[in-house]
Amino acid sequence: MVDDDQMLLDGIRAWLATVADVTLRRTARTVDELLDGDVRADDVVILDLLLADHSDPVDNVRRLVAAGSRVLVISVVASAEQGRRVVRAGAAGYLTKDHDLGALLDTVREVAAYGEVHSPELAFAWLADRSEDRPVLSPQERAILLAYASGMTLTAAARKLGIQPATAKNYLDRVKEKYRRAGRPTYTKLDLASRVREDGLLR
Fold first, then answer.
1. Which of 2, 14, 22, 89 gets the highest tally of CB atoms within 10 A of its CB?
2. Which residue range or ranges hold the Response regulatory domain (predicted)?
């Protein structure tokens, strides 16, 4: 866990000592300090959004992800824009600190299982977001994007939605074109899955 609130770190450590399936291996006040030590590739790092060293949150996330960690960003700030930025940088979740410890623990477990978790209020804000770099998708375009990006073939996605494969392809091409115009080129299924994660479309 990376946080500059020592009281919070001590409290989390004491509380997790009573939890059988989650171990707090290390705490640090900066990302530099954490990365100077032993960071395992499968660790979940709970990262405070705004640290006292004024380090860039996006850069912090990128560095931890590059080290192989799963990153859960926590913050007192319920900022949809900050949430989108750190998720695009690779964070697996963004949780506001007004949640209780049980919710934090559930989120850590979900992130450890390679899930994506975001505060409900942020997910709602993402759905309502109309930033220039986030294209507005029709219900049909969004449905085919979610189905196809989940791993289905285009034919299977079309069948699930009750449309012809050619129609599904047309919707998917429109999705790709909208992302291209928004300055976020999207070519492969992996790219599409990244856009779903970045824009919080699953929530």
1. 2
2. 1-112
Core vs surface per residue 60-83: b (16+ CB within 10 A) or e: bbbbbbebebbbbbbbeebbbebb
Amino acid type, 147 = A
- With 0-12 / 13-18 / 19 or more C-beta atoms within 10 angstroms meaning exposed / middle / buried, residue 5 is middle
Residues 76, 80, 82, 88, CA torsion sign: positive
How far is it, in rounded angstroms, from Cα 73 to Cα 137?
27
Angle between helices 165-181 and 189-198 (to 10 degrees): 60
Residue 48's identity, in one-letter code, is: D
**Average pLDDT rounded to a whole number, residues 56-62:** 93
Q: Which domain holds residue 60?
A: 6-128
**Within 13 Å and on the Cβ side, how many CA atoms surround 16?**
19
For position 118, which CATH number holds? Answer: 3.40.50.2300
Is the Cα torsion angle 57, 61, 67, 69 positive or negative in sign? Answer: positive
Tokens 């970045």 belong to 198
134 within a domain of the structure (yes/no) = no
Same domain, 191 and 149: yes
Q: Rounded to whole angstroms, what are the CA distances from 80 to 44, 83, 129, 131?
A: 22, 5, 8, 11
Q: Per-residue pLDDT for 189 more than 60?
A: yes
For 8-44, what is each residue's pLDDT tens digit?
A: 999 999 999 999 999 999 999 999 999 998 788 778 9
Output the domain CATH number for residue 152.
1.10.10.10
